[in-house]
Fold these 2 entries.
Entry 1:
Amino acid sequence: MIRDINPEGRDRSDLADSASRGRRVADPEAVPVRPAVSVIMLRDGSDGLEVFIQHRVSTMDFAADVVVFPGGRVDPVDFDTAPSIAVPDPAVHTSAWSRSTIAEEAEGWRVLLATAVREVEEETSAVLDPAGLTPWANWVTPVGMPKRFDTYFYTTAAGELSSAQHRTTEAHTSEWRSVTGILNAEDDGRLKLMRPTFVLLRELVDYSSVAEALRAERSIDPARPERPSSRGR
């Protein structure tokens, strides 16, 4: 049984980024919202879907000691790389992000894909094919946090990416683990998940295979939590 998530601001997943608590932000509204990308790498396992996760180190000033998917913020180099990104049907991406902030950026979807490819290679050594990335979700960090991100989540079938390994210094461990195993460990208090990660894993647990998950029709409404936060007040 996977636990139900509590109302916004009351769930333990809202408090998972413990290292950010207590940080004072003079003007929370002035904290920039940086675009970022996170990639949910999927493969079929004996206990259902498996995902590649990273266990963040406890010294990080944001999302410390939590489980995350590979990814990171958009860097200037991604704008330089973006024109070379090619996919069979660009409309899949422009449509998926049409209600997201990135739609305001000309060819912004190419920048996101460039970021995904770069970040995953830097953090896992795996080289993604942009054509294999499927838009999945968009979450924005609530006001009041010392760092805020407009994060775009993609799914992709592992295939040869099953050989992905631990490379990032922002995490102490990386591993393939079943979705149900992660959620059960979170329920037991053995792992920490932030709300976006918890919600996305709860969605994925309903799929019996990677193929089924990637065939799912998605209508992406950006999640912009507005819960008040004492961490920056």
Entry 2:
Amino acid sequence: MAADSLKTLHTSLIDARNGYQEAAGDAETPALKTLFAEMIALKERDHAELHDALRRMGETPDESGSFMSTVHQTVIRVRSAVTGLGTNALPSFVSGEEQILSQYDEALKDCAGDAATAATLRQQRETLLAKIAQMKQLAA
């Protein structure tokens, strides 16, 4: 069902935003602080667009995120305390974003019959691909 995959993606965007908010405070370089701020803004925008799509489907989106939000924040806090939060942490963020890409793929399959939602998902996915490339370049 289209709403189910959108709900999953919606929750993942909330979780990711929360993780980036935690990371932004501990980022060791101006470039990372900027990247994390951009990711927070991106997740906020994408979340809002999916929120609207879910409402159009008659769904009531859950704004609380998932348990994984707490896990992500804890992992970031521990990593920051132990090794710092420099560019060496970016591969973990890339991995998380690649998991979100797979959720976009699932949502795109499920929403193929809804042209407006599919267009939003494609645009969000393309933007995320560009941000992943930016993270990989910064980590190199």
